[in-house]
Write a structure and sequence with these properties.
mainly alpha, DNA-binding
DNA sequence: GACCAGGCACATC
DNA sequence: GATGTGCATGGT
């Protein structure tokens, strides 16, 4: 087991959970809403995503069939508050088109598909990268996949858990190899890391009051990963 | 007014 | 294979 900081990922999880409590992720009332949110939140503040999802709901368009049938301009208009609305409209369409053509837009048809197969299929869709695919797998489809994001990378690098040149797959492997394969744990851990990141782990870090401030770290010199 | 946010694809070298 | 750039809104 790697203990470069003297702390295991399980112990770090406990520090975060004790400090912040349960985060109740993913915010979203249905599986499909979570899937849409995963695309809309790309490089965007969640409050902007909420507005876009609100627009889709108000227009009665938060269903696979509606998004499938909407023209690009109308979809882009509805999701405008989430930013990058033209590119995200295409990405949502690509995802929903795949869901229709391959699985007839029925989530139950995904249940028996192995996680690896599903992940590869999602990654093959233009506009769905590793973080978006993994967010869908974990939060919408309840698969035990750890979601890595910029905050995860910053925390792991700054506390010496991994080298700063680590890529997405290496970071994911770090967490998945050291933690039990547990959907609820992966759900809460990622959400807690986002909470940590928002409060303390920005590109210009704040340390005072950080639940991890007593861990050996190099925050002052740490790269803005 | 600058910085940042729960990325990704594509062009260029 | 690594690096740079476009995509865009809204909060701090």
């Amino acid at each position: 087991m790697i203990r470069m900081t003297g702390w295991t990922l399980t112990e770090i999880y406990r520090l975060l959970y004790d400090a912040f409590g349960p985060q109740h992720w993913w915010p979203g009332q249905t599986q499909f809403e979570i899937i849409v949110g995963a695309v809309l939140t790309q490089n965007t503040n969640w409050t902007n995503v909420e507005k876009a999802i609100g627009n889709l709901k108000s227009a009665g368009c938060l269903t696979p069939a509606k998004i499938h049938s909407l023209d690009h301009a109308r979809l882009a208009e509805l999701i405008r508050p989430a930013g990058y609305f033209n590119i995200k409209a295409k990405r949502l369409k690509n995802l929903v088109d795949w869901f229709f053509e391959k699985y007839h837009a029925e989530l139950c048809n995904l249940e028996n598909v192995p996680t690896d197969t599903l992940r590869a299929a999602l990654l093959a869709i233009n506009g769905i990268g590793p973080e978006t695919a993994d967010s869908i797998l974990l939060y919408a489809l309840n698969r035990p996949i750890f979601v890595v994001d910029a905050y995860t990378a910053r925390m792991a690098v700054r506390h010496g858990l991994i080298g700063e040149d680590a890529d997405y797959e290496q970071l994911q492997q770090l967490f998945q190899s050291q933690l039990p394969s547990d959907v609820q744990l992966f759900n809460e851990y990622h959400a807690l890391l986002v909470r940590l990141g928002k409060d303390y782990c920005r590109p210009r870090p704040r340390c005072n009051g950080c639940p991890l401030e007593n861990l050996p770290h190099n925050v002052a010199e740490g790269p803005a990963v």
